[in-house]
Amino acid sequence: MMRNKILGYFLFLIGVINAESFLGYKVYQVTPQTQENAEFLQKLKYKPNYDFWVESRAFGSPSDIMVDPVEQETFEKELSQTGMPYKVVVDDVERLLQIDRVDRLMTRSRSIMGPGQVTFTSFMKYDEQMAYLRRIGRDYPQIATVTTAGHSYEGREILMVKISSGASQTVVPKPTIFIDAGIHSREWIAQPVALYLIQQLVENNTNAGMYQNVDWVIIPNLNPDGYEFTYNNNRMWRKNRRLEGNNLCYGTDLNRNFNYQWMFNGASNNSCTEIYAGPEPFSEPETRIIRDWFLNNTNANVKLYMAVHSFGEMVLFPWGYAPILPQDVATLRHVGSLMARAIEQASTMGSNYTVENSATLLGAAAGAADDWVKAVANVNLTYTLELPNGDAPFWFMIPARQILPVVRETFEGFRALHQYIQEQFWTSQQQS
Ligand code: 0X9
Ligand code: ZN
User: Fold this and answer.
1) Cis peptide before 53, with omega less than 30 degrees from 0?
2) Which neighbouring-strand residues pair with 218?
3) Does 386 participate in catalysis according to the annotation?
4) What residues does 310 pair with on adjacent strands?
C-alpha cells in the first residue's frame, strides 16, 4: 500500500515535469450584446491561441475563452474597443491543472482496481479501459462481441463493443443504436459514460431487456492518442496527434474531418487552431473508422447515432454545418427531449438539458460526425450529446467524484432512447 503511494507521488512528479505548462493562461468570460460582437467572437475561433471552452448561445450569453499570455494584451484592447462586457474568470489555468492533478492522484490511489476491472470513482487510463472491454468480451461472449474497429494514428487499438442477444430470426435485422465517445480527448466524462453504458448493459442483469430487441454498437474511446496525451502531457488536448506534412502544429479536430459540407463553416485550415479540419476530409484514421464501419455495415439497421461529448448539458441535432433545420426536425426534437427529460428526472445534481439544433445554439461547425452519419450514412436520428461539467469552474477538469452521478443519470437517458427505438422499429418477427 505504502509502496503504491510512493509510486503514485513519483508518477505525479513525473507528470508535473512532463506536462505542458499553462502558466499565465487566462480564461475570459465575454458576453456578446450585438451581431457585431458575435461576429468578432466568431472570428476568434479561426485564430490560434484562442480556445473556446464555452460557446455563447445567444446575445447576452457568455463565451468562456482561454487565451495564451502572448495574445492577452491585444485581446483586452480589442475587447475594450468593441465595448463588450468581459471578466477574467480564471487568472492562471495552470492552477486549475494543479487541482486536477491532485484530484487524479488522490482518487486513483483510493480506487483499488484489479486487471480487467472498471471504476467510476477515478479516471481510467486508456490501457485500463481496453483491458475492461477485453475482459467483458471474454466473460460474456453470448452478449458482448469486442472487436478492433481500427487503429489510431499512433497505432493504438480502438475497440468496439457490440451488445446483442443474437441475430434477428427474419430478414429484417434488429434496430441498432450506435454510440461513440471521446473523439475530443479532453472531454473526460464522455469515455466513462460509454463505459458505464456497457457495464450496465452487460453486467447488470436487470437491464438485460435493453439488448433483447435492439442491438448496441459502442466505441468508448475513439481518440486514444489524444487521450493518452491529455493524461500525460497536456490535459487540454482536444484533437488527435497526427502531424500533417509541414504543418506547424499537431493534431486535427476529428469532429471537423468528416466529409459532409467539409470546411463550410466553423472549421479552420490552420493546424494551430483547435478546429483544424485536416488537409482533406477523412484524412485521419480515427474518422475513417466511423466512415468504414457505416459503409461496410449498411445492413446493421442503425436507427440512432449519438456522439458523446462534454460539456454544456445539451442534446444537439443537425444540421451543424449551418443553421438549417432538417425535414424531420420534429422527430429529432421529440426523441432528443425524451432523453433530456429522462436524464433530468434521474439527476441528483440538477442537470438541465437544452435540446436544439447545434448551429442555431452554438454557431455553425461543419465536418462533424453527426452531420455525416445523417447525410451520408442515412441514419435519421443523429445527435451530439454534451454532458454536464460538474462543479464550475473546473470546465473540462470535472472532479472524479462527479463521474458517478453523471454516468448514472445519463444511463437513464439511454434507457429512454432504447425504449423509443424499440417501440418504433422493432417488430415481434425480429425476435431472436
Ligand atoms: O464543436 C463540436 O465539435 C461540438 N462541441 S464541443 O464543445 N464538444 O467541441 C459540437 C458539435 C455539434 N455538431 C455539429 N456542429 N455538427
Ligand atoms: Zn467535443
Assistant:
1) no
2) 161, 179
3) yes
4) 387
Contact residues for 30 (Cβ-Cβ < 8 A; gap 6+): 41, 56, 62, 63, 65, 79, 84, 85, 86
Amino acid in position 25: Y
Give pLDDT tens digits for 93-128.
999 999 999 999 999 888 778 889 999 999 999 999
Contacts of 311 (CB under 8 A, 6+ apart): 187, 189, 386, 387, 388, 389, 395, 396, 398
Residues less than 5 Å from ion ligand 2, measured at CB: 184, 187, 309
**φ, ψ (nearest 5 deg) of residue 110:** -80, -35
Query: Of 181-185, 373-377, 428-432, which range is least confident?
Result: 428-432
Average confidence (pLDDT) over 420-426: 95
251, 241 in Cβ contact below 8 A?
A: yes
**Alpha-helix runs per DSSP H in 169-284:** 190-203, 224-232
CA distance 267 to 112: 42
Q: Annotated catalytic residue: which of 128, 386, 412, 423?
A: 386
Q: All 3 cell numbers of residue 414?
A: 439511454
| Closest-lying ligand 1 atom to the alpha carbon of residue 386 | 8
14: pLDDT strictly greater than 80: no
DSSP tag of 170 = S
Residue with cell 443537425: 318
Distance 362 CA to ligand 1 centre (A): 8
What's the distance, Cα to Cα, between the start and end of the chain in Å? Answer: 49
CB contact set of 165 (below 8 Å; sequence gap of 6+) = 142, 143, 208, 211, 212, 432
Nearest to 370 by CA among 408, 332, 398, 407: 332
The arithmetic mean of pLDDT across residues 146-153, rounded, is 98
